[in-house]
Amino acid sequence: MDPAEERGRRPRSLIVTFYGAYGRDLGGWVSVADLIRLMARLDVDAPAVRSAVSRLKRRGLLEARRVAATAGYSLSEEAGRILTEGDRRIFERRIADVPDGWVLVVFSVPESERQKRHLLRSRLTWLGFGTAAPGVWIAPGHLADEARRAIERLEVTAYVDLFRADHLAFGDLRHAITHWWDLAALKKMYDEFLRTHEPLLARWSRRRSTDGEEAFADYLRTLDAWRRMPYLDPGLPLELMPDDWSGHRAANVFFKLHARLREPGLKHVIDVVSSP
């Protein structure tokens, strides 16, 4: 991603993270003025906020709505569904055990439907599936229901078979998953998170009091950095992971920061939206 595209994506990502973290506590609607005031603490200026919410509106995630003649944006029904599903993935982090088995998605989508094939592959990647062979994707068994819902929404059930499976013999699973998933890229992602957020956790752990505005900013940045990771890493069994795997440590840091910062951040948000 080039620097200009990254600068444009960051405000949109932070605003989505804000609505997921706090917007629903406010009833799903936030005035434009309050959103600008809150995002300023994250170094996102007013033009960037307006541009970002406009793009999110075009994508169907936000809806413009006035409340008592005040302009603002509320979550769309689709966005609410996505955030609810995201809550389960982010905050109910599930780590598989080998005896839990696996789910397989086996598909053959005709060339005439290549756009659907592309969407299916993209969605399976986002769900954390690995590629076992062409047209055969694999994930821990606990993702079976999510996979079923995704396949049904994409309307590709005619081209897909969904299986539960156990590994019975011959291959070494610990070796196989290094081919099915890009573990090096996942580890790099976790290591980068730790480089920034482990020192942040240490700083907050030493403090006796909590500044709400600072907690809000640090929590939003932390959640924004973390929230994609539980999708890209499907919770692979720890006994199959490399000895230097940092995913579990990164998750511990995230959940400790979540416990420390989320509620003080919410108090700051309520103070902002309640002030004249």
What is the string of SSEs from the N terminus onward? Answer: HEHHEEHEHEEHEHHHHH
Mean pLDDT: 92
Largest sheet: 4 strands, antiparallel
Overall number of strands: 7
Q: Which stretches are poorly predicted, pLDDT < 50 over at least 5 residues?
A: 1-8
How many structural domains can be distinguished in the coordinates?
A: 3
Q: Characterize the overall form.
A: globular
Description:
By secondary structure, this protein is of the alpha+beta class. The protein folds into 3 domains: 3-82, Arc Repressor Mutant, subunit A (Orthogonal Bundle), CATH 1.10.10; 102-165, Alpha-Beta Plaits, CATH 3.30.70; 182-274, no CATH class. The protein is 58% helix and 13% strand. It has 11 helices and 7 strands. The strands form 2 sheets. Strands 5-6-4-7 form a 4-stranded antiparallel β-sheet. Strands 1-3-2 form a 3-stranded antiparallel β-sheet. The radius of gyration is 21 Å and the shape is globular. Mean pLDDT is 92; it is low at 1-8.
Please give a handful of descriptors for the protein shown.
4-stranded antiparallel beta sheet, Arc Repressor Mutant, subunit A, 7 strands, disordered N terminus, 3-stranded antiparallel beta sheet, 11 helices, 3 domains, 276 residues, 13% strand, Alpha-Beta Plaits, alpha+beta, single chain
